[in-house]
Amino acid sequence: MIRSTHIPRRTFLRGLGTALALPALEAMLPARAVATGNAKFPTRMAFVYIPNGVIPEKWHVKGKGSDFQFSHILEPLKAHREDLLIFSGLAHTKARSNGDGAGDHARANATFLTGRQARKTAGADIRVGVSVDQLAAQKIGDKTRLPSLELSSDGRRMSGNCDSGYSCAYQFNLAWKSETTPLPPESDPRLVFERLFSNGKDRERNESRVRRERYKKSILDFVLEDAKALEKKLGYTDQRKLDEYLTSVRELEKRVTASGVSSAELPEGFKKPAGKPRDFGAHVRMMGDMMALAFQTDSTRIATYLLAHDGDNRSYPHLGVKGGHHSLSHHRNNSRNIADLTKINRFHCELFAHFLDRLKSIKEGDETLLDHSMIVYGGAIGDGNRHSHHDLPVVLAGKANGAIKTGRHATYPTETPMANLFLNMLDIMGAPRERMGDSTGQLKGLA
User: Which class in CATH covers the domain with range 44-187+280-292+301-447?
Assistant: First the structure.
């Protein structure tokens, strides 16, 4: 059996303007660890935000512990039953008005990862708190090329009044580097792809992309020589894994390229389109695949994805739904509106299931990337019709390298701060804290 020659973990395939990170290969691990099956892989952490609340009775599962039955909305996640920890009882009390009046959607977005009350302002004096992802990035962000990755399905909005006197910055950002500094997420798959797989600064990455488009080249064409040289050093298992990875990169690149018109194909004087897929589902699946590749290559271990901002009124005609999402969330117990909102809630779960499928398809040693991750899927509004912020819709996927016991429905007392879960996650990521946001202590019974 041909064994791989040892190579450094941060090996890149390099070419003109390109630096392609590699997945975890046996050649990067200590030989003894590979032989004994004790190879260790990093834990990854991600947060996927869903807006406007849910239909509670269609979301919440029946039964406790491992003896639970999936609800209608969560049914698309059934194939991942043993990978899930479904929560009941978590709350974000700082998303409530607490004397500040209307603005639940802005507060929900701002509070979700911070556990803090957002200052009510539509001006430049925004303030909330440091988000859990950035608390982790402060400790472990230097271990990867990108400290964290911020994604969204929506465009960037950093100013203006978006919700009852609250700045748009609250609704369109999940990650907060400081109490006053949000990290704007990227919604263009093309730019995310370039950030992950091209070298240099923004201008240099753009020049590399334009050059590839002009000559109709793949990003892989620029690293072909490096890839061939590396392949000669690898054993059969690693060769196969490298081939699978490069194939997945190429397939994603094709989808990204097809999602918008190439600047090289545009008539002179025409403005280049954003490059976002017109189809929302295709956009979300593509961004999920980006996160998976970022984790697979250890380009980052921390990611946030704003599936849609709270208050989003996107329509879903392909589901047979005529009304906008936000409008339907205020259903006033109208049976048709409830049915339509349930379809949207379930569709979002289908998109999340695609992301989990991708993570589970990527092997790392004898386990999968999903086994080595913890992915929170949920929002800071429970019942959208009432703008409630307790009994939140929250699911955690992945075992976090064995630190989390999944395949369960975990129930906690009403009003248990969601920030308590974040304390557990920070501890697992190697960034322990005694407090964050409105936390009162770590959740018990997670392991």
Answer: alpha beta
